Amino acid sequence: MTVSAPESVFLRACRRRPVPHAPVWYMRQAGRSLPEYQKARANMPMLKACATPDLITEITLQPVRRYHVDAAIFFSDIVVPLRAIGVGIDIKPGVGPVVDKPIRSATDIGQLRPLQPDDVPYVTQAVGNLISELGATPLIGFAGGPFTLAGYLIDGGPSKNFEVTRSMMFGQPDLWHDMMSRLADITTAFLQVQVEAGASAVQLFDSWAGSLSLDDYRTSVLPYSRRIFDALAAADVPRIHFGVGTGELLGVMGEAGADVVGVDWRVPLDEAVRRVEPGKALQGNLDPAVLLAPWDVIRPRALEVLRRGRTAEGHIFNLGHGVLPQTDPDMLTRLTELVHEAGQ
């Protein structure tokens, strides 16, 4: 009998229900480490690819076909909704998101208008295509968290510590809260478009929230993360919350309202269980760099992640961040097989 998407092993683990084996998917599985991805996206700018439904569909499906992972992640980029509402932002190869005019004033913030479904018709079309193609495999919707989006908009591009962003947060709190409120609503709308089109779960990537202290996160970011998750509660899809370098923030990130807390490679999963409030599943957390080592190094480390993951109420195996571009796809195939076999 075919198992329907709502009963998939991935969704059951997200909801802390019994599963026959640990489900597995990989952040950035749909992308740069795959030769078929390089071929599909040849000479096409990233943001154009993210606005082309047939290409979104193909790239999202590639790792499902190759690795037989338990969930697909929608191929997109965190700046897509910003570009869709008219922000001058692009992804420069080898650099990352770069803003034409960094935000510095209330006038600049006022240009962050609400996102409407009609702004991203390619998302609705691509999700619909994917639901038809994926069958029992769930599709995870995707969006960037408000702090990370603010970081790119204010600093103007990638930064080690987002000092300019944090200086606005500290020194101009009225501007900061106006901006975060707008970004939270834009992010919510972007995720709702994906859910309404058929996505079975969502993940909020607040990738760079780990640059904040616990108190600053609680005061200046948590209310907006919670606002996003609260708005999605009625959709009754699992909500995942992830950031990098967030070991000290795991407890408060759990308070934001997600069903699953993503853990990067720095904190063992059994320690994360102690830091995150009960009633949450955990996701993670093999170091992506381990996949550049030989298999006899990868295997025991993956088994250790599974062992520690069994202490959680629910565990989704993943990396502690995205797949690195130089990763051998065959290693991910072997890793997926190992998780399915050993994670029982």
List the helices and strands and how they pair.
Layout: H1 9-14, H2 35-40, H3 46-49, H4 53-67, E1 72-73, H5 80-84, E2 89-92, E3 96-99, H6 106-110, H7 121-134, E4 139-144, H8 146-155, H9 163-171, H10 173-197, E5 201-205, H11 214-220, H12 222-232, E6 239-242, H13 250-255, E7 260-262, H14 269-275, E8 281-286, H15 295-309, E9 315-319, H16 329-342
Parallel strand pairs: 1-4, 4-5, 5-6, 6-7, 7-8, 8-9
Antiparallel strand pairs: 2-3
Give a description of the structure:
The chain has helices at 9-14, 35-40, 46-49, 53-67, 80-84, 106-110, 121-134, 146-155, 163-171, 173-197, 214-220, 222-232, 250-255, 269-275, 295-309, 329-342; strands at 72-73, 89-92, 96-99, 139-144, 201-205, 239-242, 260-262, 281-286, 315-319. With 344 residues, the chain is of the alpha/beta class. It has one domain (5-342): TIM Barrel (Alpha-Beta Barrel). The strands form two sheets. Strands 1-4-5-6-7-8-9 form a seven-stranded parallel sheet. A hairpin with a 3-residue loop joins strand 2 and strand 3 (96-99). The longest helix has 25 residues, at 173-197. The protein is globular.
List keywords for this structure.
46% helix; TIM Barrel; alpha/beta; two-stranded antiparallel sheet; 344 residues; disordered N terminus; globular; 16 helices; seven-stranded parallel beta sheet
